[in-house]
């Protein structure tokens, strides 16, 4: 039986790679559903190649447009309701979440409640609602297999060793600004910042890599995925992007996962877990690798790392505030409305200005309410 999968966010960087993986896996995978926000040109092309039964787009107007250019047998849904409908379809076993941002929180919860296997690339949902998502996954006996390369590495290193875990080490390339003095940051164009030295990714995560907020979000993501304390997660800068992360065990042994930096590898493992198939990717060639370096991150230069750590320690609604403020600030930065150095400033102010509920166990509605407040506050600070 092929694995019957839905790829939500199929037109993005992860989504396109997931479809490449599906093609290379051939009969092992059947694509049942795809989704995009507004990029119906690319989605229509994907529909014609992969023949899904159902797709989802942003709203009714995009649905009307795409219906004119795809076969009429394909069901077209729209909005969050459409994503939730896909997430709970009986003919889907695995839902791969490649949507960026917080809009995938409710479809993710729906997929967990529908007991689907989850292949999770999106990190924002876990950052803001990690306690709810992981509790539901446990209650429903659902496996969440991470796609984020660091978390996939840790997931793979941990297999059979969870009870002996001491510490997690998340590796970071340091992003495109690692060797550039902080005084120059505000003079660099968004185009420069979007050009990551090792990974080709969507715009939002590329800016997050430059501020190192991506690593901050990943600390929080790791806390929820692997149920570890914030103090037991360390960030290590590793510019070569060959070691994708590491764990240490109580006896002092370290395990690391190494591979070429290519997202198709963690995507494929999340789809086929626990089985492995040939990825046909090039292998690491140790005769060409001169050194593997590891260094401490510069938190003065990249204050977002400490902001994320602080939000995690403050717990409750704070990671959601951090995430929402960051999303708004990054959007404004990409629209050239604010300077690069305003991003951490705005996030810090939003965290400091919050006076709402500080309880640790929150409902989804309380989290969404706090996120709305953080967005408005971030936008006010952008002016
Ligand atoms: P992209 O921006 O490239 O793609 C996002 C996808 O989500 C697109 O298909 C987009 O549709 C869709 N989308 C965007 N907004 C909405 C919305 N409001 N409702 C429904 N669909 C929406 O992002 P990436 O592929 O880079 O990243 C996806 C997620 O994976 C992020 O959470 C990111 O942090 C995480 N991730 C990404 C990695 C990477 O290498 N890219 C690595 C590790 C994690 P449309 O094309 O129509 O806009
Ligand atoms: Mg990552």
Question: Would you kindly provide a written description of the structure presented here, covering whatever features stand out?
Answer:
This protein is 45% helix and 15% strand. With 383 residues, the chain is of the alpha/beta class. A 7-stranded parallel beta sheet has the order 4-3-2-1-5-6-7, with helices on both faces. A 4-stranded mixed beta sheet has the order 9-8-10-11, covered by helices on one side. Strand 1, helix 1 (13-25) and strand 2 form a beta-alpha-beta unit. Helix 4 runs parallel beside helix 5 (105-113), helix 6 (124-139) packs parallel to helix 10 (213-226) and helix 14 crosses helix 15 (364-382). It is globular and about 55 Å long. The structure holds NADPH dihydro-nicotinamide-adenine-dinucleotide phosphate and magnesium ion. Magnesium ion is lined by residues 148-150, 218.
Name its key features:
383 residues; alpha/beta; seven-stranded parallel beta sheet; four-stranded mixed beta sheet; 15 helices; 11 strands; 15% strand; globular; binds NADPH dihydro-nicotinamide-adenine-dinucleotide phosphate; binds magnesium ion
List the helices and strands and how they pair.
Elements: E1 3-8, H1 13-25, E2 29-35, H2 40-50, E3 54-57, H3 60-67, E4 75-78, H4 79-87, E5 94-97, H5 105-113, E6 117-120, H6 124-139, E7 144-146, H7 149-158, E8 165-172, H8 190-193, H9 203-211, H10 213-226, E9 233-237, E10 243-249, E11 254-258, H11 264-272, H12 304-314, H13 318-334, H14 342-353, H15 364-382
Parallel strand pairs: 1-2, 1-5, 2-3, 3-4, 5-6, 6-7, 8-9
Antiparallel strand pairs: 8-10, 10-11
Helix pairs in contact: 1-11, 4-5, 5-6, 6-10, 6-13, 9-13, 10-12, 12-13, 13-14, 13-15, 14-15
This protein binds NADPH dihydro-nicotinamide-adenine-dinucleotide phosphate and magnesium ion.
